[in-house]
Amino acid sequence: EQHPKAVIVIFGATGDLAKRKLFPSIYRLVRNNKIGKEFAVVGVGRRPLTNEEFRHNVQESIQSSIEDSTETDEFSSHFYYHPFDVTNPSSYNELKTVLHELDNSYNTEGNRMFYLAMAPEFFGTIASNLKKEGLTDTKGWSRLVIEKPFGHDLPSAQTLNQELREVFNEDQIYRIDHYLGKEMVQNIEVIRFANAIFEPLWNNRYISNIQITSSEVLGVEDRGRYYEHSGALRDMVQNHMLQMVALLAMEPPIKLATDEIRSEKVKVLRALRPVNEENVSDYFVRGQYYSGSLFNKSVPAYREESNVDEQSMTETYVAGKVMIDNFRWAGVPFYIRTGKRLKEKSTKIVIQFKDIPMNLYYNRKEDLAPNLLVIHIQPDEGITLQLNAKKTGSGVYGKPIELDYCNNCLDGINTPEAYEKLIYDCMRGDATNFTHWDEVALSWSYVDTISHAWKKEKAELAFYRAGSAGPKEADELLERDSFHWWHVG
Ligand code: BG6
């Protein structure tokens, strides 16, 4: 396959995402020979930096991925910095000249990727200026990559989308949900559609419930200002959690083409049972952490974090029961939970199968354990299947055993970073692992009713200690249905 060629323009190049994810991912793409020499990166930001200073930042950010330090000068020589004022047309004009020159010197054929990794209030302005000042007017392709948040509710997302669509077609817009770049999230589809032993069971006759957990150790760090208005529901559920639900629940696409997969995911999102003000507390729990300790260090309460209101009602934790009212899933709860300042960093999916019709191995003390399929997303990547087998020794009792597959143990720890895959996909024009407008709109409308109900204080805020496993209300949510969260290692 030919190396894709492009000039990548990063808006927000002095920001955290660029440093932590984007530069290292581009470096790995080069190192892994996915892109060749025909690329350049233009960092754009308000701060006045020289190319040298910018390249120094780039080199620093890739330190931990470097294998051979002599390569780094060559690598960083592809990076250029351009001080920029997003509201000033002459900034765009200058940038246009820079891009033309780079097109020539790097032979990038007019291909341009505009990566918006900065404050979302400028997304619309930037897009329309790019068009007005002729930056998208080249003989190659132009693509727009949009970081989250894509709006903060349905109306604001619609406004943003209209602004973008005045300039770019839907197929030029790449909305990032970085969970879709994760190796094991991409694996959901393969596990489901390449295995004869799962697909026939993948429905309400054989699956009793599905549990998706994404727990974090980090608090809000320096993102208080953003997070106060977002909370876990908008920050994690609207995008990452519902995307995982859609991948687990969708019908098999007729083929593995972007449009086919999208349209199956959209159907799942259309079938989500809406929650309303009256029943929100039957379906969703919101929580917030108070002070506690993590790894023997005491940490403050959410309300004591900087840029957070002392009486903040923002949720740092959400647990929910998502129902999909269609033929395949009627009656099967998809339980989701996610939160900050929990005891471990871990994302997992547990599929619990229904019990067999009759238990011949009841040993008076315990019921037989159900079969579980566990998909470990991070930090471990792998699959575990829990079965029952004979307990060694006298008597015929069943006991649970585990078949384990560890992905990042076998293929080496260097599984590609999510952003590495997504940047590469965008350069090749593959939008499968990006979110389509319909998906964004449907998941906002689902989430909006929940946040409206919460705003009207239609549900308690459950407090949990930092460093704990979350509020007990999240356990009660499942107990009401006679289930419990599985704690699988
Ligand atoms: C981001 C959220 O989208 O996802 C963050 O804004 C969160 O608040 C992050 O920490 C989690 O991503 P990951 O890849 O660390 O699970």
Report on the structure:
The mean pLDDT is 94. Helix 6 links the parallel strand 5 and strand 6. This protein starts with 5 loop residues before the first strand and ends in a 10-residue tail after the last helix. The chain is α/β, with parallel strands linked by helices and 489 residues long. The protein contains 14 helices and 17 strands. It has helices at residues 16-31, 51-61, 71-76, 89-106, 123-132, 154-165, 183-193, 224-249, 258-270, 280-283, 407-410, 418-428, 437-455, 472-479, and strands at residues 6-11, 39-45, 79-83, 112-116, 142-146, 173-175, 207-215, 284-290, 292-294, 297-299, 317-322, 334-339, 346-353, 372-378, 382-390, 398-406, 461-465. The strands form three sheets. A nine-stranded mixed β-sheet has the order 16-15-14-13-7-12-11-8-17, with helices on both faces. The protein has a six-stranded parallel β-sheet with strand order 3-2-1-4-5-6. A two-stranded antiparallel ribbon has the order 9-10. The chain is globular. The structure holds 6-O-phosphono-beta-D-glucopyranose (BG6). The site of 6-O-phosphono-beta-D-glucopyranose (BG6) has 4 residues, from loops. Substrate binds at residues 178, 182, 216, 235, 340, 345. Residues 190-486 form the Glucose-6-phosphate dehydrogenase C-terminal domain. Keywords: Carbohydrate metabolism, Glucose metabolism, NADP, Oxidoreductase. Its EC number is 1.1.1.49.
